[in-house]
Specification:
alpha+beta; Jelly Rolls; five-stranded antiparallel β-sheet; 12 strands; 10 helices; about 45% helix; Arc Repressor Mutant, subunit A; HTH araC/xylS-type domain-containing protein; four-stranded antiparallel β-sheet
């Protein structure tokens, strides 16, 4: 399963929507989305859709999220009278596709902080905890999209609200599954958060095992089961993600970043970075525009814009 993330401080852009009712032996045709995304929400019966090679059965209350650039097609006919809502939208901010381990980190971080967020997180497939709000939003969208409103912003904001509601239900279902699982799995998610918080320390598999009261072998089995990688691979992936952040948002040298993240030496750090990212740290830094901001307004070379130079 894939996971989608984008910022909605500027609302998503509504494209088109509708409700579809299946005729006898109807099966979804093959198609590829170009730049838009599609949300399918089951109302009645079962809709059978593939995204590339992944097969999904969309039952009432299920949400299927289709990504651009992938082949979508029906793989079995639906019963006559089966129905679903469909909605297409465009993003107004950069989109990111996350892996299972990355979405775990995102949600764990959200659950362990009280700050508000401006991103939506949508899985490829979600079974709704509460269909009420979602159905209200989609019906409002359909109504307004077919009315002569003087601005498109109404549908844009409603689509964004729908996406926020889906994100909240996704986070709630994740949290609920963790709560229902046994104490071993609860401790596992606490371990993920501990590694994230202590990313700048010299973390070893043995240290994590001791911290969690698991054997190193059992811990690795848990990592393989939940996120598909070993304990060491996960530790390294978190450190590399932090390195990417430092490369773009600080003026630290490669050697300083290596030291900050407690790698053995900068040569080992560069080798590991290339293994995980396919390019060297220097190439990564050069491939993106600088995002480092000098917050010292007294620096004459980097004057603050007028709208940032006053206290709020």
């Amino acid at each position: 399963m894939l996971y989608f993330k984008t910022n909605v401080s500027v609302p998503l852009s509504y494209y088109k929507s509708g409700q579809f009712i299946c005729e006898k032996n109807w099966q979804h045709k093959s198609f590829i989305l170009e730049n838009d995304y599609e949300i399918i929400i089951g109302i009645k019966g079962i809709i059978y859709i593939k995204q590339n090679e992944d097969k999904y059965e969309v039952n009432p209350g299920d949400v299927l999220f289709l990504l651009p650039g992938m082949l979508h097609s029906g793989y079995a006919p639906s019963d006559e009278g089966s129905s679903f809502y469909w909605l297409h939208f465009l993003c107004t901010s950069n989109e990111i596709i996350l892996t299972k381990s990355e979405i775990y980190q995102e949600i764990i971080s959200i659950l362990n902080t009280e700050s508000l967020h401006e991103d939506i997180l949508l899985p490829t497939f979600l079974s709704l905890i509460d269909t009420g709000k979602v159905f209200i939003y989609i019906k409002q969208i359909l109504h307004i999209a077919n009315s002569l409103y003087y601005t498109h912003l109404s549908t844009d904001y409603l689509v964004s609200e729908l996406a926020i509601e889906l994100t909240q239900q996704f986070i709630n279902s994740f949290s609920l599954s963790v709560t229902k699982e046994n104490s071993v799995n609860k401790r596992f998610f606490q371990i993920l958060e501990w590694i994230r918080v202590n990313v700048t320390k010299d973390i070893s598999v043995q240290m994590v095992a001791k911290k969690s009261n698991f054997s190193a072998d059992h811990l690795t089995r848990l990592f393989k089961k939940h996120i598909g990688m070993s304990t060491l691979q996960y530790i390294n992936s978190i450190k590399i993600n932090k390195a990417k952040e430092l490369l773009l948002n600080s003026e630290k040298s490669i050697k300083e970043i290596s030291y900050t993240l407690c790698f053995k030496d900068d040569k080992y750090f560069m080798k590991l970075f290339k293994k995980y990212e396919g390019i060297t740290p220097t190439q990564y830094r050069d491939a993106y525009p600088k995002t480092y901001i000098n917050t010292d307004s007294s620096d004459p070379l980097i004057p603050l814009p007028s709208y940032l130079s006053h206290n709020k």
